[in-house]
Amino acid sequence: MMESRDITVGELYDQFVAPTYGRFPIHPSRGKGVDLWDENGKRFLDFAAGVAVNSLGHAHPALIEVFKNQPSDLIHCSNLYQPRSQGELARVLTDQVVQVPGKCFFTNSGTEANEGLIKLARRFGEVMPSSSGKPRREIISFLGSFHGRSTGAMAVTGQEKIRAGFGPLMEGFVHLPFNDVEAFRNALTEESVAVFMEAVQGEGGIHVATPEFVSAVAQICQERNLLLFFDEVQCGMGRCGDLAGWRCINGVAEIVPDGVSWAKGIGAGFPIGAIWFRDRPAGALSLCDLLGPGSHGATYGGSPLACEIGRVVIDTIVSDNLLRNAAVLGKSIIDQAEHSQMPMISEVRGIGLMVGFQLDVERLEKSTTLQSDGRAISVAVVDAFSEAGLLTVPAGADVVRWLPPLVVCQEDVDKAFGIMEKVLNHLMK
Ligand code: PLP
After folding, report:
1. Which one of 42, 242, 276, 287 has the lowest number of neighbouring Cβ atoms within 10 Å?
2. 4-59+321-428: which CATH topology?
3. Predicted confidence (pLDDT) at residue 368 exceeds the cutoff of 90
């Protein structure tokens, strides 16, 4: 590689990297567990975890082992063939994660996974049309949701700021208030075909679906033959304390989805996405066979390396008791937050290791020590935390998220609270 120390990292980005992200001036070079170091050796407590990706923390030995061994056997061989690893991961996702008969398709990201669900919904609407014989094409999602950045996934996303300026987007999407059963019931039409739901909205600011809402939506979907899809890209794979995020919502464990999408934590840093389709009738076929040969594909999806990583990640999450860790620590975080000295935090919400701190924007705007420089308050606060050694993630304009690796421990949590308290108390001045 060309030696380019003649130019700073910041300058490299300014000159050569498209400015699509609002990046913090941090240059990570190494990580271990919950710790991350930058190029100058500064240490950070990483409660961002690559935005809910590094589920096993940095440099987990189980993951390193796969990277050491699998490539010398086989990295990629295409979906023209049947490498065992893809079938094995599909079995784990079906039997252990969803626990309902069905089949899987593999992608490389969450966006791509949701695109697959959109195609499944469209196909289902063709084979199970409305009573007039018209294909059902209307897909419902919720305000505040995030499902990805492709033109299709953006169309499902319930945030105008994500969609704005990229029209005309794909047609046939309706965005309804989250946790509002009546609005949902009233908005359904003859053309409604599927529903996308995050059990815990992540990008939208950590909003947890109420049990009443999830139950009612599931029941109505069943009555009206709509497909119920859970987008588990952020809240799945153990983050909320169970391999299935929706099962963490009180009292809804028995609900059976028709489709599920995953990415982020399933690869723990390697790009893997997946979708699961339920084995249930859909015209002459089963739903899980509706996307037949030639109807969908992804060159890289489900490679032996990706699938071996996915299998080992899930295996490690289960065998290292990380589900229990996420559930127990998650409860204690909410408890601790309620008793901590954090002025300017007006509410703390979440499940497991998906925690949102609602900022008191009015008070923060009056702070003379907060350097907001025209940025959203959440971004300025996250910046202040990272300067003090704690990495967190903004969610919208007024929420700061904790999404630590599932290997995080109580001592790390105490340190993180210590940093937040110190920074927020300083900002009070
Ligand atoms: N769905 C949810 C719930 C997400 O949080 C994200 C990313 O933040 C996506 C989908 C898109 O995933 P990706 O960035 O891997 O395409």
Report:
1. 42
2. Aspartate Aminotransferase, domain 1 (3.90.1150)
3. no
